[in-house]
Amino acid sequence: MRPVVACHCVECRRATGHHVAATAAPRDSVTIAGEVRWFVSSPGVRRGFCPVCGSNLFWDRTGSERIAIFAGSLDTPTDLRLVGHIFVAEKGDYYEITDGLPQAPQGGADRIAEES
Ligand SMILES: [Zn+2]
Question: What distance in angstroms lies between residue 29's CA and the mean position of ligand 1's atoms?
Answer without folding.
Answer: 23
